[in-house]
Amino acid sequence: MLPAWAIALDVIVACLLALLLIALWLIVRRRWLTRHGGTFELSVRLRPAKVGRSWVLGLGRYSGGDLEWFRIFSLSPRPLKVLRRSELSVVSRRPAQGSEEFALYDDAVVVECRYAGEPLDLALTTSALTGLMAWLEAAPPGRDLLTS
After folding, report:
1. pTM of the full predicted structure?
2. Does residue 28 sit in the same domain as residue 95?
3. Are 31 and 47 members of one domain?
4. Range of the structural domain that residue 77 is part of
5. In three state form, how does the secondary structure of the chain look?
6. Claim to verify: residue 26 and residue 48 sit in the same structural domain
7. pLDDT by position in tens, the chain (length 148)
8. Are residues 107 and 72 located together in one domain of the fold?
9. Looking at the structure, do residues 24 and 58 belong to the same domain, yes or no?
């Protein structure tokens, strides 16, 4: 029978190895998501009722007529949200305020949108917002686009 210190050492080494593998997977996943370009830092407010809170950091990626959103600290290779261009419109934008400045990426702009008739808050940089607006305006003719 092994002494208690040997068992504890094995558990510690196994935990450290698991943490190393998770960190390595997060790095590989981010590289895999960004390999074709078109990705940008994009945060989403998952619970809009909580002002200044409930922001989740992530990456946005354009894929044809969809905007895919991936949580930054997730092991899943699949997007958590897929926003169709035809159902997304920008209502307004404003600078991050109060606690949002600490919860979001640097230089983030909060963009209030409507997605399938429901409110949706996004936060991205000014240059990424320019790209988002260009992507929305590149929609097929005949689609109404709300901007202000």
Report:
1. 0.77
2. no
3. no
4. 37-137
5. CCCHHHHHHHHHHHHHHHHHHHHHHHHHHHHHHHCCCCEEEEEEECCCCCCCCCEECEEEEEECCEEEEEECCCCCCCCCEEEEHHHEEEEEEEECCCCHHHHCCCCEEEEEEEECCEEEEEEEEHHHHHHHHHHHHCCCCCCCCCCC
6. no
7. 789 988 999 999 999 999 999 999 888 888 888 887 778 999 999 876 656 568 999 999 998 889 999 998 888 889 999 999 999 999 999 998 888 888 888 889 999 999 999 999 999 999 999 999 999 988 666 555 444 4
8. yes
9. no
User: How many domains, in total, are found in the chain?
Assistant: 2
Cross-strand pairs, 69? 60, 81
Distance CA 138, CA 87 (A): 14
Q: How many residues does the chain have?
A: 148
The sign one gets for the Cα dihedral 130, 109, 41, 57 is negative
